[in-house]
Amino acid sequence: MNGIREGWFSEVNALWPGQCMSLEVEEVLLHEKSPFQDVMMLKTKHHGNALILDGVIQVTESDEFSYHEIGSNVPLNAHPNPEKVLIIGGGDGGMAREVCRNPAVKSVTQCEIDELVVNACKKYLPNLAVGFDDPKMNLIIGDGFDFMGKHKGEFDVIITDSSDPFGPAKVLFEKPYYQLMMEALRPGGIIASQGECLWLHLDLIRDMFKFCREIFPVVDYTTVSVPTYPSGQIGFMLCSLNPETNFRKPVRTFTDEEIETLGLKYYNTEMHAASFVLPHFAKKVLEGKAQK
């Protein structure tokens, strides 16, 4: 059972059997139950403040930037004109921060179902939640399924920043959700959706690849290192309605000066390319040449 014992929080979950990440805790800043989930904010000894949802680490201040910079800039820079962006989830604000930073983006709508998470992050993770105050941002507290069903054909890019595939988030890893995202895109639109861990969930990723290829002409997977996530790796499913899209060769790149101006710490042109390099065992499975 997840909890704090002898000054350590341990993340125990059946999705990563036989292993867990532990964080040394200085203080419990918040622990409340919303209508949707258990919400905990911890002040850790070495990783800054950390958001925990239903006993699972969502972000720590020490390494959140890698996930958010790859999850935003890879899809945005693959689209020739990503003016209008929708974020589903992402209640910590980190994805909104990065999307709003991208100079090609003109407006951002975010649907987050749990207002407690947003308010907690505004208070305890202000470096992430800064995106909520950006003039480009329109934050909606509500259900992303319902919103997309009412806003078809509106967005250039949709980014899903979700928790792991159990409980309410399980449906975000299934074909009907991807179909719904596709219908909310403008012609040539792109999606990026949290795509789990190659080391732990390769069967799930393979199955997602299969149904995504039934919906979109272009499908790919990008990977990023996040030390406090299970096995230290997570990825994003990338899909495009434009058959000419090549996610591996961005249509827009940042100079070194632009990277410094934007405040990026992980993403650059080389890292964009490197994020698509997969270990051989995973490449074979995702290319359909092997079974896990």
From TrEMBL:
<protein>
    <recommendedName>
        <fullName>Spermidine synthase</fullName>
        <ecNumber>2.5.1.16</ecNumber>
    </recommendedName>
</protein>
<feature type="active site" description="Proton acceptor">
    <location>
        <position position="161"/>
    </location>
</feature>
<comment type="function">
    <text>Catalyzes the production of spermidine from putrescine and decarboxylated S-adenosylmethionine (dcSAM). Has a strong preference for putrescine as substrate, and has very low activity towards 1,3-diaminopropane. Has extremely low activity towards spermidine.</text>
</comment>
<dbReference type="InterPro" id="IPR029063">
    <property type="entry name" value="SAM-dependent_MTases_sf"/>
</dbReference>
<dbReference type="InterPro" id="IPR030374">
    <property type="entry name" value="PABS"/>
</dbReference>
<dbReference type="GO" id="GO:0008295">
    <property type="term" value="P:spermidine biosynthetic process"/>
</dbReference>
<dbReference type="GO" id="GO:0004766">
    <property type="term" value="F:spermidine synthase activity"/>
</dbReference>
<keyword id="KW-0620">Polyamine biosynthesis</keyword>
<dbReference type="Pfam" id="PF17284">
    <property type="entry name" value="Spermine_synt_N"/>
</dbReference>
<keyword id="KW-0808">Transferase</keyword>
<dbReference type="InterPro" id="IPR037163">
    <property type="entry name" value="Spermidine_synt_N_sf"/>
</dbReference>
<dbReference type="InterPro" id="IPR001045">
    <property type="entry name" value="Spermi_synthase"/>
</dbReference>
<dbReference type="GO" id="GO:0005829">
    <property type="term" value="C:cytosol"/>
</dbReference>
<comment type="similarity">
    <text>Belongs to the spermidine/spermine synthase family.</text>
</comment>
<comment type="subunit">
    <text>Homodimer or homotetramer.</text>
</comment>
<comment type="pathway">
    <text>Amine and polyamine biosynthesis; spermidine biosynthesis; spermidine from putrescine: step 1/1.</text>
</comment>
<feature type="domain" description="PABS">
    <location>
        <begin position="6"/>
        <end position="241"/>
    </location>
</feature>
<dbReference type="InterPro" id="IPR030373">
    <property type="entry name" value="PABS_CS"/>
</dbReference>
<dbReference type="Pfam" id="PF01564">
    <property type="entry name" value="Spermine_synth"/>
</dbReference>
<dbReference type="InterPro" id="IPR035246">
    <property type="entry name" value="Spermidine_synt_N"/>
</dbReference>
